[in-house]
Design brief:
Length: 133
Amino acid sequence: AHSVGRVHCVNLVHRLYPTVDPTLDPVYAEYLKGRCPTPDPDPDAVVYARNDRETPMILDNNYYKNIINHKGLLIVDQQLASDPRTTPFVQKMAANNSYFHEQFSRAIALLSENNPLTGDQGEVRKDCRYVNI
């Protein structure tokens, strides 16, 4: 689902400062530095970069094209394209938007069958890294 949405700078500046992560496309890294101009962004500020610059609000396979082209925002994203176990899947998703949609739909259906917590059994986190207070 990283095809849409955005990443707050606080979660990606470690790839830009003090030196740029060598797995990032240099031109893309400069764009990201423009979006996140300081290595210490205010965690409460809404300063971010979009997951996908070309089709930011369209659920499509551009995410996979981006990581093949070294334009993955998060390290975990970029690792999908470089790990021999996952590279074939990334390549297939990048090459075929219909295949991506089929697999995304399948994944959402599987997730919906995992008996999600309801009522007061769980919470929608304001920040996924922390339990709500």
